[in-house]
Design a protein that fits this description.
The protein is mainly α. It contains 13 helices and no strands. The protein has a single domain, classed as MetI-like (MetI-like fold, Orthogonal Bundle), CATH 1.10.3720.10. It is a multi-pass membrane protein.
C-alpha cells in the first residue's frame, strides 16, 4: 500500500495595505534626502564664490576691450587672444616656462628617487637614516620667500657659491648668476629643483617601503642582479606613483610665480619671464587687464590639459 505525496499548502502572499511601504522597504523622508547636500553646501558656496565666479569674470574680461580702466568696455571677440599669442614676450615666456617645468620635473624625479633609494637601503643604520632624512627634507620646510632670499645671497657675485668656485679655481671672478642672461634661467631652475625635490623623495620612499620583499627574493633566485632588480621590480612597482607625481609637478611648476618674481622679476632681458610673471606684468605693470585675462585663460587651458591626463591616470589605477 503506497502513500500519495501531498504538496504542502502555503498561504498566498498578502499585499500590504494601501498607503504602506512594502515589507523591508522603509519610506525615506524627502527632507532626509537633502541632508547630504546641506553638509556639502558650505563647501559648494565657497567654491562657487572663490573659484567659479572669478574664472567666469576673467573669461568675460578676456573678450572685452581693456576692462576696469575703461568705464564702458566693448566686446572685441578674440582680439585679446590674438594679441597675446602674437606677442614676442608671450612666446618667450612660453618657451621659458616649458624649459623651466620640464627640467624641474625631471630633476625632481631623479633626485627624489635617488635619495629615496639611499634612505631605503639596508646598508645604513637607523640613526644615519634619520639624520639624512632631516637634512634632505630641510628645503621643503622653508617658505618661497625664504628660499628666494637664500639663493639671491648665495648666487650674489660676492656670495658663497662664487667664493667656493674661486677657491677651487673653477672661475676667476664672481659670476652674476641672476644678472647674466645666459645663466639666470638655469639659476632659478636650480633653486626651484632644490626646494621641490623633498616632496618627491618622501612620496617615493613611502612607495619603496610598500614593495613586497618577496618580489626581490624571487628575482634574486632567478639570478637577477641589483640593476635588473631595479629595472624589472622597483621601477614597474613605482610607475603609477612616478606618473602621477610627474603630472602634478608639471601643474604646480607651471604656476610658479613667487620664486621667479622675488629672484629675478622675469629679467634680465626676459630670460626668466614665465607665463605667470607675464600675466602679472600685463595686469599690474601695463594695466592691460583684458590682455592679462586672455593670458590667464590660456594658462588655465594648458593647466586643464595636464589635469586631464592626471585624472585619466588616476582612473586607470582604480
Amino acid at each position: 500500500m503506497t502513500s500519495a505525496h501531498v504538496e504542502p499548502v502555503t498561504a498566498p502572499p498578502v499585499a500590504p495595505p494601501a498607503g504602506r511601504p512594502a515589507p523591508g522597504r522603509a519610506r525615506v523622508n524627502p527632507a532626509r534626502r537633502l541632508i547630504p547636500y546641506a553638509y556639502l553646501s558650505p563647501t559648494i558656496v565657497l567654491m562657487v564664490v572663490l573659484m567659479v565666479v572669478p574664472i567666469v569674470m576673467v573669461v568675460g574680461y578676456s573678450f572685452r576691450d581693456n576692462v576696469i580702466v575703461q568705464e564702458n568696455p566693448v566686446f572685441v571677440g578674440f582680439a585679446n587672444y590674438t594679441k597675446v599669442l602674437t606677442d614676442p614676450d608671450f612666446l618667450v615666456a612660453l618657451k621659458n616656462t616649458a624649459v623651466f617645468i620640464s627640467v624641474s620635473t625631471v630633476a625632481h624625479l631623479v633626485l627624489g628617487l635617488g635619495f629615496a633609494l639611499l634612505l631605503n637601503t639596508q646598508l645604513l643604520s637607523g640613526v644615519t637614516k634619520a639624520v639624512f632624512r632631516i637634512v634632505y627634507i630641510l628645503p621643503w620646510l622653508f617658505t618661497i620667500a625664504v628660499i628666494a632670499v637664500i639663493w639671491r645671497l648665495l648666487l650674489d657675485p660676492a656670495g658663497v657659491v662664487n667664493y667656493v668656485l674661486q677657491t677651487l679655481g673653477l672661475v676667476q671672478e664672481g659670476v652674476n648668476w641672476l644678472g647674466d642672461p645666459s645663466t639666470a634661467l638655469w639659476a632659478v631652475t636650480f633653486a626651484n629643483v632644490w626646494s621641490g625635490y623633498p616632496f618627491f623623495m618622501i612620496s617615493l620612499l613611502a612607495a619603496l617601503q610598500g614593495i613586497s620583499a618577496d618580489l626581490y627574493e624571487a628575482a634574486a633566485v632567478d639570478g637577477a642582479g641589483p640593476l635588473r632588480r631595479f629595472l624589472n621590480v622597483t621601477l614597474p612597482q613605482l610607475r603609477p606613483v612616478i606618473i602621477s607625481m610627474a603630472v602634478l609637478d608639471l601643474i604646480w611648476t607651471s604656476q610658479q610665480f613667487a620664486l621667479i618674481w622675488m629672484m629675478t622679476g622675469g629679467g634680465p632681458l626676459n630670460t626668466t619671464e614665465m607665463l605667470s610673471t607675464y600675466t602679472y606684468k600685463q595686469a599690474f605693470s601695463e594695466y592691460e587687464f583684458a590682455t592679462a585675462s586672455a593670458a590667464a585663460v590660456i594658462v588655465l587651458l594648458l593647466t586643464m590639459v595636464l589635469a586631464f591626463f592626471y585624472v585619466r591616470q588616476q582612473q586607470r589605477e582604480r
